Amino acid sequence: MMSSITKWLALSSLLVSANAFYIPGVQPQEFKEGDKVEMKVNSMTSYHTQIPKDYYRLPFCSPTGGPKMASENLGEFLTGNKIQSSAYDLNMKTEMYCKIVCQQQLSKVEAAKLRLHIKYGYHNNWIIDNLPSASVGISATTNEKQTHYAGGFPIGFLDSRDRDKKAYIFNHVNIILKYHQRDPAVESYRVVGFSVEPMSIKHEFQGGYQWDEDDETRFTKPLSTCTPGTHMDRDRIFANQVVSNDEKIIFTYDVLWEESDVAWSSRWDIYLNENDLVPAQVHWYSITNSILVVVFLSMLVISILVRNLRRDIEAYNALAVLADEEEDEDIDETGWKLVHADVFRPPETYPMLYCVCIGGGVQMLVCTFFVIVLSAVGFLNPARRGSLMNAILVFYMLCGIINGYVSSKLYKSFKGRLWQLCTVLSALAFPGVAFTLFLIFNIILWFMKSSASAPFLDVLILAAMWCCVSIPLVFLGAYFGYKQESIEFPTVTSTIARAIPPPPLLLQPWVGIITAGIVPFAAAYVELFFIMTSLWMDQYYYVFGFTLIVYIILIVTCAEVTILLVYYQLCAENHRWWWFAFLAPGSTALYTFIYSIVWFRSLEASNMFMTYMLYFGYMALICGGMMLVTGTVGALTSLWFVRMIFGTIKVD
Predict the structure, then answer these.
(1) Which helix (H) or strand (E) holds 551?
(2) Has residue 275 got a pLDDT over 80?
(3) How far apart are CA 460 and CA 82, in angstroms?
(4) Is the CB of residue 176 less than 8 Å from the CB of residue 197?
(5) Are 43 and 52 in contact (CB under 8 A)?
(6) Which one of 86, 275, 326, 377 is most buried, by most CB atoms within 10 A?
(7) For the whole model, what pTM was predicted?
(8) pLDDT digits (tens, 9 = 90+) for 114-170
């Protein structure tokens, strides 16, 4: 047993070593001193609302000629990214001091809109050379500067000391850029760090100057709130910029350049580990917890199943020999052998739906595995924005052939005749529900003018991928599945089903279904917290090495729990194990959804109904996919187990 634990820990160390590794996937951009460094703006986000908004929806400064969209892939659109050009001019190694961007006079509607977005905690997400902006703020506990590398920086704040809770906007930013010179002999620099320190300053022009859009020198007029040649500091702020009707807001920025020893290939490391904010020991605790659950469960399965099965098989075979010798057919039998003529009887309720669920579960199982593996080795990472979503779509689409093959072969073994309908349902069931939910949310978000609403063309591309690639692959897999020989069972099924005796309370199927999911959930719940935080709170998640281990442990745990429970159901002479073997491990998804309800309080969600719809709608969809995966693992493992034990005994 100790050797197996050692192997597990060795495997864990090997996989976890990939956590801080990623393949950038883009060519380093070289700058010379004075070269233009383009800054782009992404959608504003708030984990309180879960509804991204277009940056220029609020009265921020627009570039000359209007903002221009950056080229984006399908995954970026589907994840709510909307990257556009900005009005901020930056040049390599060129310091800037209180440079004016524009002045905006707020109308009543603009002031109300800005105040509402500040109340909901919206953050700006700026990008320079594919690096997202970190946020530099003051820690509430230590009163010192602290940097956060995920989630952008806030657009403003509410004064909690004020009875009316006035809103203030961050109209000045210190843009801090770090550069690395690979070869001192070559004048070539790379951007390796990007952070923003937002400030709220009630700016005023010197000499009472009034902003004039026709005055070409308006950007060079001195401000009484800024010191020439000196970068802005919080200690020199005398008044904050309030958000109110007809308020004139002057937007300014400083640019600070700092040399760094960080190589370009390692510039994402600090984003991925959040500057060691979450120690690796926490993830190791998660892995250790999961491994201990698996080891304990494996010992339980071995001690119960192997011992009992060996005794049962020897007794049944000895009884069969005795019956042959004495030609006595009235020798009493007990236990799971009694159901040999019914154990492979197809499910009495919804056999086609069962096959559809198993096929969809295998598709989801294989797709998830390959996506996690590619993420663990570094091919899918935040440097490739939208790559994770693209990979999920592509792998799920390609795995449709496995879905069709498994569902059709299983349905053929059940002697089903409506194979066309089974194949159509396999192709449309889960992806149809997912696409319908996405379409409904997309239409509502479009009416709310959210950047999370995918453009009509991208929705058409998504539908074309499903209809022209995924569905044909399901039919192709079904064609090969029906051409194959059906699954052979070691016993012959009788014409009339055997009556099932009333089981004791603990062997009631519903008791096993409800309790079975606790163990797999316990093996994964620690890592689930970090996944939820990344999914709903705009945090980076990149410990996919840990995720891969937890995913494997989850599969093993589901398989072992289901085998144990199915064995006891057979001992209780219950031959209706098909749906039981699917629903018992599938209840892991039920506990995950209950956990998501409890975790929802962490979001401090707004009172917007759409926030609740998005969160619980997509969590229900995720848990539905999880139920397909865990249920399929339990069902297929139980099928292998039942075939094995009934193939080792002699029956008439």
Answers:
(1) helix 544-571
(2) no
(3) 18
(4) yes
(5) yes
(6) 86
(7) 0.87
(8) 999 999 999 999 999 999 999 998 877 777 888 898 889 999 999 877 777 899 999
Neighbours of 198 (CB within 10 A): 22
Please give the structure tokens belonging to residue 474: 């399901």
In sequence order, the β-bridge partners of residue 131 are: 128
Environment class of residue 363 by beta-carbon count within 10 Å: exposed (0-12), middle (13-18) or buried (19+)? buried
Query: Per the structure block, which two tokens stand in for 604?
Result: 């401090």
CB contact at 8 A, 581 and 562: yes
E-only strand ranges, 200-247: none
Q: Are 155 and 66 in contact (CB under 8 A)?
A: no
Task: Identify the band that residue 330 occupies on the pLDDT scale cut at 50, 70 and 90.
Answer: very low
Would strands 153-154 and 123-124 be described as parallel, antiparallel, or unpaired?
A: antiparallel
Residue 428 tokens, joined? 């449309």
Q: What is the 8-class DSSP label of residue 344?
A: T
Give the β-pairing of 126-128 and 156-158: unpaired
Nearest-angstrom CA–CA distance, 426 and 407: 7
Return the closest-CA partner of residue 570 out of 260, 392, 274, 340. 340
Other residues' Cβ atoms within 10 Å of the Cβ of residue 386: 18
CA geometry: angle 563, 569, 572, nearest 5 deg: 145
The rounded distance, in Å, linking the Cα atoms of 78 and 618 is 14
Residue 544: strand, helix, or coil: helix
- Is residue 250 a contact partner of residue 171, using CB atoms and an 8 Å limit? yes
Mean pLDDT calculated for residue range 258-275 = 85
Q: Which residue has the tokens 């979450």?
A: 278
> How many Cβ atoms from other residues are within 10 Å of residue 333's Cβ?
14
Q: Please give the Cα distance from 632 to 464 (Å, whole number).
A: 28
Contact by Cβ (8 Å): 29, 190: yes
| Averaged confidence pLDDT in the chain | 86
Number of CB atoms found within 10 A of residue 234's CB? 12
